[in-house]
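For the sake of transparency, this paper describes our internal protein records without simplification. The remainder of this section carries one protein's record, kept here as part of the documentation:
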Amino acid sequence: MKLSRRGNVVYDEELLGKFHVFKDRLHAGKLLGEACRSVLGGADYVLAVPMGGVPVGLMVSKALSSKFDILICRKLLIPWNREAGFGAVSPDGSYFVDEAFARSIGLSDRDIQEAVEEQLEEIRKRNELLRQGRGYPSLEGLRVVLVDDGVAAGYTMTAAVEFVKSRKAGEVIIAVPTGCLDPLLKLSRHVDLIVCLNIRSGPWFAVADAYVEWRDLDYEDVLNLLETRG
C-alpha cells in the first residue's frame, strides 16, 4: 500500500485504475481499515451503508476502535430501469434529486414522489430488521466515518453525508475501497476527507469490478455479520 493525498482525497497509488484488486468485501475492509488507521488514528463512529457496506464497515470500525452502526440510505430508482438511480433518500425522509438528469429522462414530479415513498418504506423495513427500529443518535461534535463497498454515481453517499451533517457531526469522512473519480471529486467538496484505495475513471464504472468475489448480500448475510461481531 502506497498512500498519497490530493486535496482532501487519500488513495493508494498502487491501485489506481486497476481491476479485481480485492478478494472480497472483508479483504477490502481490512485494507481500508489499515489505511484509515494510518490517516485518522481513530474515529467516534463508523456508519456503514447496507447491504454491501456492512462487512467493509465492520472491518474499518475494528481498525479504528470506534462505535459501529448501520446508516440506511436508499437510491431513488428509475421506474423502467431498476438498476439505475436519479437521487437518494435518507432515514429522516429528506432526499435529493439529480434534477437535470431526472428531467432529461422524462421523470415527472409524481414519478419522483412515488420513488421517494417506495424507498422510505424500504428504509423502514430495513431499520426494523437490521436495527430493531431504533432511531439515530445525535452525532454532535463527533468524527464520523461513512463506509460503503464503493462509490459509483455517489447518490447514496451524498444522502448519507447530508444526514450526518443534519445530526451535527463535527467531522465527516468517507471511506470506501473503490470509487469513480468524478463522483468522488464532487463528494469531496462536502466532506472533510475521503479515503478511497482504488480510484478509477472512464465512462463505465462498476463497483463489482474492484472485487474478485462479488455477490449481492441479503438480510441473513448482514444479520450473521452483526451477530458475529456481537
Notes: The chain has a mean pLDDT of 95. The chain has seven helices and ten strands. The helical segments are 25-40, 53-64, 99-104, 109-131, 155-166, 181-188, 219-229. Strands lie at 3-6, 9-12, 45-48, 67-70, 74-78, 81-89, 95-97, 143-147, 171-180, 193-200.
